[in-house]
Specification:
Blueprint lengths: L1 H18 L11 H24 L5 H20 L1 H5 L3 E8 L2 E8 H6 L3 E7 L13 H11 L2 E5 L11 H15 L6 E11 L1 H13 L11 E4 L11 H6 L7 H12 L6 H5 L6 H4 L2 H6 L39 H4 L5 E8 L3 H13 L4 E10 L10 H17 L1
Parallel strand pairs: 3-4, 3-5, 5-6, 6-7, 7-8
Antiparallel strand pairs: 1-2, 2-4
Helix pairs in contact: 2-3, 7-8
């Protein structure tokens, strides 16, 4: 009996050792933190979600969300970081134009009544995961360090609310803040917009949309943190080189795009193989927006009338800049506000950010692009424990202080 128990313990230990042996890219500066904080954790969440869906415990997206949020809640309770970072802030959960938001106001500003900058922030999570609670320590930190009013937007999430729900909520909340800045002692000419990952997508999409709005104050800047900007090409160098990583793999990113697009993962392999577009699209300017080395690019007729699409629900949306901002025409990029783009080497989304920064620069937009050779997706949320992320946060704050 003792021998049997010992053998079971050895077997369990061996399995745990195998499971916890998370592959770590050679260039990662703090490999144990990378493996523990993101790789193993997210891999486990994905496995639980897929197993749960197989046994009809719910959809993969719903279970994945529940697992990730449960871990986040436990971590915040154990560390108590939200409340530490909230010291010196007035934090209010309220509604802007029907959208739930959290407003962070420095108490010194509230008491003095002096005008300060404002920042609208959109959290990441593939339009599916995370909430304003997930980024609460970071958004509170931004408000304190900037001495600014920060609005964190709790937009509706896919797959229950596919595109354009998150975009519509993001536009509505931002417009409300621009129109009611004085109520929060905010200088309406000094309001910026920012977001990470899927939130970076929303920030870029809102910036493009509001640039065409008349009668609104202009956004002072947009700051995009490893943004997801295109769903036309899943074979860019960063997808090829880093698509196997558990922090955010190609497989998971394609799932996020599909949940946001039409909640039909039956097309997952089609998207991964880049068979979700047509020969015409692959030769059009849209493909050229992702691959600047393309030659013989053929501009599409207005309304995409000369483009054919595979028989996939809502597939035309992949060319909509509200869905994929990198698909915006060159003319729409001109006149956008100064832009900050942060990219990480170990991230399938690296090339999305790099290409957008280059296109914006060519369009005459002032661009500040910070690339972190040792960074991974989504390392900025670990700014208080991961040295490279702390450096990235300091540089991000420095940009905002100078440009808000």
């Amino acid at each position: 009996m003792v021998l049997k128990a010992a053998l079971v313990c050895v077997a369990v230990a061996a399995l745990l050792a195998y499971y916890c042996n998370e592959p770590v890219p050679q260039g990662i500066a703090e490999p144990h933190l990378y493996a523990k904080m993101q790789g193993i954790k997210f891999r486990t969440a994905q496995n639980v979600a897929r197993i749960g869906e197989y046994f009809s415990a719910g959809s993969e997206a719903q279970i994945l969300r529940s697992v990730v949020e449960a871990w986040g809640n436990i971590a915040r309770k154990l560390k108590g970081t939200s409340y530490v970072y909230r010291e010196g802030l007035k934090c209010t959960d309220t509604i802007f134009n029907g959208v739930n938001v959290r407003v962070y106001e420095p108490t010194s500003t509230v008491q003095s009544g002096s005008k300060v900058p404002g920042l609208v922030y959109f959290h990441g999570g593939g339009w599916v995961l995370a909430t304003i609670d997930t980024v609460d320590p970071m958004t509170a930190h931004l408000a304190k360090q900037l001495g600014a009013v920060v609005v964190s937007v709790d937009y509706r999430r896919a797959p229950e609310h596919p595109f354009p729900a998150a975009f519509d909520d993001s536009v509505a909340a931002t417009k409300f803040f621009l129109q009611n800045a004085e109520k929060y002692n905010v200088d309406r000419t000094r309001i910026g917009i920012s977001g990470d990952s899927a939130g970076g997508n929303l920030a870029a999409a809102v910036t493009l949309a509001l640039a065409k709005e008349k009668g609104l104050p202009k956004l002072k800047t947009q700051a995009l943190i490893y943004p997801a900007l295109q769903a036309i090409n899943f074979s860019t160098p960063s997808y090829i080189n880093h698509g196997h990583l558990n922090t955010l793999g190609k497989d998971q990113m394609v799932s996020f795009w599909l949940w946001y697009l039409n909640n039909d993962l039956s097309f997952k392999k089609v998207f991964e193989a880049n068979n979700h577009t047509s020969a015409e699209i692959k030769k059009s300017q849209y493909a050229g927006y992702v691959d600047p080395e393309m030659v013989d690019v053929k501009p599409a007729k207005k309304g995409n009338l000369n483009l054919k699409f595979p028989d996939i629900p809502n597939i035309e949306t992949i060319l909509d800049p509200r869905f994929a901002p990198l698909m915006a025409d060159d003319a729409d990029l001109k006149g956008l506000p100064p832009t900050y783009v942060m990219t990480c080497e170990y991230d399938v989304l690296k090339d999305d950010g790099v290409m957008y920064a280059k296109r914006l620069g060519k369009a005459g937009v002032k661009v500040n692009h910070d690339h972190y050779q040792h960074g991974f997706h989504p390392f900025l949320i670990y700014f208080d424990v991961y040295e490279s992320a702390g450096t990235a946060m300091a540089n991000y704050l420095a940009y905002l202080k100078k440009n808000l």
